[in-house]
Amino acid sequence: MRYGPRPAVRGLLRVVCALAGIAAFGLLMDVITLVFGQGVDSAVAAAHHALAAVGALLLAATAQSGRRPAAAAAVRAPSAASRPVQLAACAGTAAFLPYAGMKLVWVSGGTFAGVSGDEMLAVSRRNGASGIWLTLESWGLDGTVLLAALGVFLLWGLVRPWGQVFPRWTPWLRGRRVPRWLPLAPAFVGAATLAPYGVFGIGYTALCTAGVVTMRRGDFHASGDTLLVAWIGMAAFAAYGAALTAAARSYWLRTRPHRVVPSHRPVTEG
């Protein structure tokens, strides 16, 4: 008896799933814009990104469905990722430090890359920043730094055992296993967005630095200042995106239920 799709169909589903994931590129940016801005640039494009992400999840579930129930499934004990994956998490975390430092200098009223904090606040208002964003900046906080902190928390939850069990301060969930989809869903969205964004951004910034193409100054006073900020931002996104990809893959493999094959003892006649 055959269970689930044929191997060739499974392979095709995985390919289409990858294409749907590529089509969902930009979903994370849409969510950030909705939270901290007045709205997305294009409602149609945002809906397309969301539908593509849903399609990728459904295709992945279909490709994994119908596995032969040859044995009972047992939940693995919480475990840490391998040392290389944890080192990647360290690199992804460290890459955000210059980015966070740059942002905190601006919200504290300082000057970085030739632009003062007051100028950056005026830019935020001009670009239609939401009341939440402006309120955070008035408190000396930056929305992207808070998101980076949440991203680092997610990253380490994927590579450490505590990311697989609910903490003690949740008495109604204490000791229960975290559903796999809960950390993996944002991890896959973040990795699919930030990794290619950062990698291609670094390539473009390198071309601009070499003088092959020209980068617009934007809100900065000199092209060198624009390049400095671009290098800080793109390096952070690329390193974190790559680390998140490795961590999500490790978490996926470490939390998969393993098959327990029951032992068949021979029946002896008395």
As residue ranges, the low-confidence spans are none
Strand tally is 4
- Rg (CA only): 23 Å
Instruction: Give the DSSP E fraction (strand runs of 2 or more residues).
Output: under 5%
Q: What can you tell me about this protein's structure?
A:
This protein has 270 residues and is mainly alpha-helical. It has two domains: 70 residues; 190 residues, no CATH class. The chain is built from nine helices and four strands. The strands form two sheets. Strands 1-4 form a two-stranded antiparallel ribbon. Strand 2 and strand 3 form a beta hairpin. The longest helix is centred in the C-terminal third of the chain and has 32 residues. The radius of gyration is 23 Å and the shape is globular. The two termini are 37 Å apart. The mean pLDDT is 83. Keywords: Membrane, Transmembrane, Transmembrane helix.
Brief overview, please?
By secondary structure, the chain is mainly alpha-helical.
